[in-house]
Design a protein that fits this description.
- Helix content is about 30%, strand content about 0%.
- It is mostly helical.
- The chain has a domain of about 30 residues.
- The longest helix has 26 residues.
- It is rod-shaped and about 150 Å long.
- It starts with a helix and ends in a 54-residue tail after the last helix.
- The mean pLDDT is about 75.
Length: about 80
């Protein structure tokens, strides 16, 4: 048989080992877990405005007989826009 002092030492060290193990497990289990969350989204912009481009009102000017009998330029009048 083992003597009483050896048995108490074994019980003491085993209880300390169990306490240290429980403290270690409790500290490591409360550690925050790292989670990586990736989100992918696409944004679509719809534009419903129609842009209408008109041709200019005046593309060409044709002037017949722009000079008078003396060779001077006759006065003429141009109005821009629609009639």
């Amino acid at each position: 048989m083992k003597d009483k002092q050896t048995e108490t030492k074994i019980a003491f060290y085993s209880s300390i080992a169990i306490i240290v193990l429980l403290i270690f497990l409790s500290l490591t289990s409360c550690k925050s877990k790292i989670q990586t969350i990736e989100t992918h989204s696409t944004d679509t912009i719809y534009k419903s405005e129609v842009i209408k481009i008109d041709k200019p009102q005046l593309n060409k000017i044709f002037l017949d007989n722009i000079c008078d009998s003396l060779g001077n330029l006759r006065p003429f009048k141009i109005t821009y826009g629609t009639k």
